[in-house]
Amino acid sequence: FGPIPPHTGMAETTVIRIASRTSELAMAQSVAVKGMIEQAHPNVKCEIRGVDTKGDQRLDKPLHELGDKGLFTAELESLLLGGEVDIAVHSLKDMPTRLPAGLCVAGITKREDPTDAVVMRKGSTYKSLEEMPEGAVVGTSSLRRVAQLKAAYPQFKIIDVRGNLRTRLAKLDGEKEGAPHYDALILATAGLKRLGWTDRITCTLHPPSFLYAVSQGALCVEARAGDTSTLQLLDAIVDSETEARCVAERAFLRTLEGGCQVPIAVATSVLTSDEHDMEGGREGVEARMSVWVEMSNDENEKVLRLTGRVLRRDGSFHLEGTVDGPLSKAEEIGVKLAEELKMRGANEITLLNEPFSALPELKHDLLLRAAKREKVERIPVWVMRQAGRYLPEFRNVRAEHNFFAVCRTPEMACRVTMQPLERYGCGDESMTGLDAAIIFSDILVVPQAMGMEVEMIPGKGPSFPSPIRTLHDLERVEYKPDVAERLKYVCDAITLTRRAIGGRVPLLGFSGAPWTLFAYMVEGGGSKTWEKAKTWLYRYPDQSKELLSALSDVISTYLLEQCRAGAQGLQLFESWAEILSPRLFRLYSLPFLTQISKKVKEHYPDIPIIVFAKGGHFALAELAEVESIDVVGLDWTVDPSTARQQIGGKKAVQGNLDPTALFAESSVVEELVDDMFEGCGTTRGLIANLGHGMMPSHTPEGLANFLTAVHKKGAERCSREE
Questions:
Q1: Active-site position among 49, 389, 423, 564
Q2: Residue 389 among the catalytic residues
Q3: Reading across the β-sheet that carries 686-690, which strands appear in turn?
Q4: What is the pLDDT of residues 125-151, one digit of tens each?
């Protein structure tokens, strides 16, 4: 919109009925808009009708717990749609990005200062947040402010504060009985200025360290979309630069599908073409940012700059980007920036911010039914190292991020977990559909949680700079760490991925088994002989059992935390069972596998547990006797018919195609899969997998051949058994 001349020639006074919230600030804002309209149109008179909204009435909960759709606007919009008023005045930041049918944003007035203000308690001598002591209490009702405060000032205690501005200030100053103690509040600068309370502003928080809310400081006039005369009348109060800034900000928010449930912050500015040229023009912009909106042919057109930030609620991680473009392409600028951040993981941050209760129900339970040895219509399939270096999209992530950084960042762990599902499909969505996802992490996060340093060295694999070599070294190991805190990032990734999957397939959690982790901790990395680790078992049997027992306790707690986070199945990797003799396995592996699975089953009896003891052919019958184990995983070196004989019908089995078979032609892969199923005998209690994980040299096409063969041959065999 652009301003038009004031209406002239009106025969008589026109009355415009304005709907407004009843709060002191809202009424002041409506009075300001009333003044703008009456100044632009002398023969127009405005009447204001106050309305209490749900947001004004519900002061018992934080805003994000009430939901954000129409919280402060629905009642006003109802009057508009019913023809009882002509316009409604809102703080634009309270407006949903999608309006009810029949209504539109008719005008955005010149923006007041959009920053946030720090307001100290009366009598305080502090002049800034930096001066406040550790443990100081800061009040705010905004998740965006909370997240940014936690990131910048983790030493503060941040608590919710609700009520109108006068009520909040009374709570701050200790004048409201029963209110908690606050040392400072964070409030919108614009609101304080509009009420004439600038004397309460101690300081303001500015970009780039502290970004503001979408459209903060801007007033919006909402009207009926078909009310042409009112829309034309309101053109006179529109500020074009404010409108462009807010259009970009709201397009950013809308494309991210965020609201007050998600901490999203922005900053916008308008540059003249000369100012932009002084920064290096387009070349300078491209050096700073990855997204650019093409400028128009008008060399004098102003440049709009939008910076956006998406945060975790706890402030521990955020994504940020900046886009420049012509003022006339504000909508495109907002969309472009949102799409860029979504590609970098903004969707995952948004999902992680949702409440736990939002976890979707499972729609495709084929694998879980097979794990319980129930009848299935098709043999389910997934593969170990399902998300890995054989995928180009995974290599792209790893090119920019350290291996353990991906593991420790829930958004990135979720993204790579989802990559094979996005490529191959889920369940029966396609002939390559996977029937489970397994969270992307690493077995060695457990030793890390116990205080040991682990590095992932390219071309070499895991390495412990300071392994356990002497009994004295055991003092460096934390036998009872805070598992829930130290491995929270894994559980956050599980919750996040459950939401991302949307119930299409189950999500598996996992851990390394005690002996396998023990072996790495003592050996210091991979080995051909594992001489050092096995020597410990013979030389220090009591201390070995103590460490293995401690590992079992940590792993049990870890797996329970995974279940609480949303894992729907679990796998224990005893990757180095093959280097143990049957006697050593019975002493140092089997008892701890039993202990862990039993403890998990006490709390989650319906979650299936898979044990993959690579090379442990001699122990299949013994594993089958462990009541708390549901599925026995097979590596590729054991004949499936032999394994079935040892296991009997006591457990489901998983496996076990030779991973190198994926290099064969598709027809050969299909034949090998059919042979594997033939060896396994009955399809009841059978989960197809490889006999070990995917290799970096595998191709996506090789896995697709395997998945297709399993779908085809598995369905045929199940059909014949009906």
A1: 389
A2: yes
A3: 437-438, 507-512, 569-574, 609-613, 631-633, 652-657, 686-690
A4: 999 999 999 999 999 989 999 999 999
